[in-house]
Amino acid sequence: MNCVSKKYVSLMNKVLDQEATEQEKQVLFEHLATCAECRVHFNELKESTELLRRLTHPQLPAAFTESVLNQLPPDKRNAIHKWGSRHPVLTTVAICALPMSLVVIGSRRQTRNRNGYALVKVSGDQT
């Protein structure tokens, strides 16, 4: 299909899916009247769509979902993940406790000079 732009292909799909407006249908059918390649392509799409619509949908047993879920392997998450998912607030506190304790420990290493500025003690500092 040399002349077909994405515009006409998308219009074909919209018409076949019954989502096109009357104006879009008119534009497509005017183009199909003048373009044999697009007309053949549209008819092929139309036939494919009809075949798909005629397919029967299988009826699943009522307990299908339950039987599939029972066949899945057991959950292998470790105890920490299980505990964390059951106690999200405590998990957040535990995760924040380590960085905050490092901040507190680091602040104890600071001293203040006469001007009130905080100075960090560094080993080998000559001041």
Automatic annotation (TrEMBL):
Residues 8-39 form the Putative zinc-finger domain. InterPro entries: Anti_sigma_zinc_sf, Znf_put. The chain crosses the membrane at residues 87-105. Keywords: Membrane, Transmembrane, Transmembrane helix. The keyword Transmembrane applies. Signal peptide: none annotated. The keyword Transmembrane applies. Belongs to the zinc-associated anti-sigma factor (ZAS) superfamily. Anti-sigma-W factor family. This is Anti-sigma-W factor RsiW.
